[in-house]
Specification:
The protein has helices at residues 8-26, 40-56, 110-122, 165-168; strands at 2-6, 32-37, 62-65, 98-106, 127-135, 147-151, 158-163, 172-177. Helix 3 links the parallel strand 4 and strand 5 (127-135). The chain is 30% helix and 28% strand.
Amino acid sequence: MAKQIYDSMAMKRALTRMTYEIIEKNKGIDDLVLVGIKTRGVYLAQRIADRLKQLENAEVPVGQLDITLYRDDRHDASLAQDPVVNEADLGFDIKDKHVILVDDVLFTGRTIRAALDALMDIGRPKKINLAVLVDRGHRELPIRADFVGKNIPTAMDEQVAVYVDEVDGKDGIELKKL
């Protein structure tokens, strides 16, 4: 059975707070770009960009990052098929930019490690910060988020499910027992 952690309004408030934190920490939005990790990170990045536009009256580029080829588990025998790989083109140059990498859930850190590898293959940004909607702990790598919507301590037999309207038809965060 799933336990609701955030409804759509709480999720919106968390993203708004994260947006303010991004502005404050960076003293504005100069040279800022957002890169969402597919799939849900892309939609969260776009929502942050929309809020930045409302607050700062300026567009911030948003790109999407497919980390499929960079995952350290892609050769796992339990994966039934070869990965589908999309072009690694963000649509803008990240050289000397301040990149905010956006994802839905931070767990072991392996997805973020893969995303950092992918970003470095694309270009050399001036700085990279990490924004996640949920930090659930249980890190296997020394990775920490700079902007967090909600810290949710979890057990290993639990799963955090983030829903975004663009993919799932609703917004929210649930905690599920496996």
